[in-house]
Amino acid sequence: MTDGKRLTVDDEILARARIHAREVLDEYDLDEYDLDVDLDALEWETSARAKRRAGACRWNSRREIATIVLTRRAYECYDWEEFSAVVRHELVHAWEFQQFGESGHGPRFHERAAALDAPRHCRSFTEPRYRLRCLEADCEWTATRHRASKPVTSPGRYRCGSCGGSYEVEHTESGRSWTSGSGYGGAKSALGEEW
Length: 195
Ligand SMILES: [Zn+2]
Ligand SMILES: [Zn+2]
Known about the structure:
The chain is α+β, with helices and mostly antiparallel strands.
């Protein structure tokens, strides 16, 4: 995967999240909850490194700016319905920070999260152990595996599920990848304990 493509995914995440935030604040009847998120005092970021949390919200009290951080891997693992619920959950945190300078998962949070159909708890997700990715230039096919099945250990003997081209396997934790059985063995022995 090139850096150009990563940028595109991050841009897509941020654009969809911003649009969703506007829609949510327009569509839901929030007067009752006084859920008036100041979008001008809200910033958005993506994280390529977060592994367990799908989203987070930071507060800068000096600038009075809330920053919602969305995890790229979660966007890639979830469907939009799940991911947009993460966006709404973090919007409630942003609102609490903007209003009170602090945020948690107490009754006040719970009430607003329910009004937005957002989960009360921050979603955590388990990253798949392996990711398969087609090597053909114009094919976007990827798949995930939690276990070292044959397509993971011997990618040379299988084909991309979409175009029939060859694919690589990435060990998501380390970022190491291989395209053959010997590559798999090499990556596994190089990582040793970290495997
Ligand atoms: Zn939360
Ligand atoms: Zn393909």
